[in-house]
Design a protein that fits this description.
4 copies of one chain form a homotetramer. With 143 residues, the first copy, chain A, is of the alpha+beta class. The first copy, chain A, is built from 4 helices and 6 strands, in the order βααβββββαα. In chain A, α1 (22-39) packs across α2. The longest helix of chain A has 18 residues, at 22-39. Chains in contact: A-B, A-C, A-D, B-C, B-D, C-D.
């Protein structure tokens, strides 16, 4: 299920152009992905189980379109959802809207993989992952 | 000319995974683009002249591949250069190498446009820009 | 009135020691002071009126005691209130508690002054400020 | 020996007031303390030896006076030195000067203790610490 969180823009979020600095969106979106794993508790639980086996999810690519500068006093509404999946990766779609409007300040696709930390290798999206994250399995079957 | 700067990784740069946090690279790369405009003084001068006319360069897309986690004690070598150009945008290529090796921690393409702040519109890359930034003009002619 | 806001600790907030990094508290406390000016609308309004005259409030000293490391998954409860006042400065007291407990992660006193930006001089806390911020006037009368 | 490092101020360092944001100084000063432990290699070595025994140095108080706003294009010169010592703590003095002038942007005193991580207790500054860090021993003897 899509996660939604809101961040109130303060003086320390903006830069010399008085717009929210580019790097801050990366933090806001990271916050959004944690919010997604909390809202979709089965995903959070899956991450915990995998981590105990030394398997962690990692970002391998971030791709952000900056659309409109947000300013002090704006509230950004961060929407995060699973978007697509391949045999070895999945993509989270994340959007930062200004207030309660449909005007995006930024839109991102974040590509993740699962890594076996001991082997230092990306693993395939396997049965355990698919049974723990049905939405991901669904996208893979469709894909 | 390619700009090179170096950043020593400290405790505050890394996150819960003890790797440099994703958002920090966006800052390191911003630092690299400022370094590029300083090294290539004609570009810095062009930006200053344009700004006086209300024309600023703005990032519209960042696309970063994360390759290898950098840790406390590493020095990241940030290399920044102009990579390609279209009629309304240009792309800076930026790489963060670990120490003096050829092992990239992250590689990025940063797409920029010039915006007329009053009109709030992206402008074409015009004669003034091309004569002030010959490397950009060269890529446009080739392109 | 005391302002209370809450921040969920994420991976990007912590550093090599897996505790919330010192600099982040400075941001959390800045967020808390903005929250105070929103909750106490007469204070926010005063700041706006003063700013139109070129008078801004500025931090001149921050003094933070770090008590206990907060970790990923904790929620910090930031409490912010006016604490004391002198003829030319006032102090905000700020505490970051872990969750809903009385265990402080950090406690701060933030000293502020009002600056006339044109004259580049600190001004006295005058009638306008005192009538716009009765709590501050009360502390001054007591003091 | 006093450590000196320099940081070039970029757009992402400043906030809505176009001055370097308060939290950034905490990072710059953290950078300065790492630089101190590198320059004074015997101190860095001591920290490493202690850490192997589960003893880490930790900041318990930061006290920063903000003197003058630094802006984009400034270079801050961060000077860091050991300042004083007690039986259970030591204080690093840190100053951020604007460029090569004697004008401080900010001045800080950072109080540190040594903590036994297993016992979760502050330890006394003992023989091992004093023999590994003669400057600290000197201040204690004077003290």
């Amino acid at each position: 299920m899509k996660a939604v969180d809101r961040i109130k823009i303060r003086g320390f979020h903006v830069d010399a152009f008085r717009h929210v600095n580019h790097a801050r969106y990366v933090e806001f979106f990271e916050d959004g992905r944690w919010a997604y794993a909390e809202l979709n508790q089965h995903v959070g639980d899956l991450f915990t189980r995998l981590q105990k086996k030394g398997i962690v999810h990692m970002i391998v690519n971030i791709n952000i379109d900056y659309k409109k500068g947000a300013v002090v006093g704006d509230t950004l509404r961060i929407e995060t959802d699973l978007m697509k999946a391949g045999s070895k990766s999945y993509v989270m779609s994340q959007k930062a809207f200004i207030g309660e409007t449909d005007t995006p300040a930024a839109e991102a696709e974040m590509t993740n993989v699962f890594v076996d930390r001991k082997a230092e290798k990306v693993i395939e999206i396997n049965e355990e992952i698919m049974s723990g994250w049905p939405e991901l399995a669904g996208l893979l079957r469709e894909g």
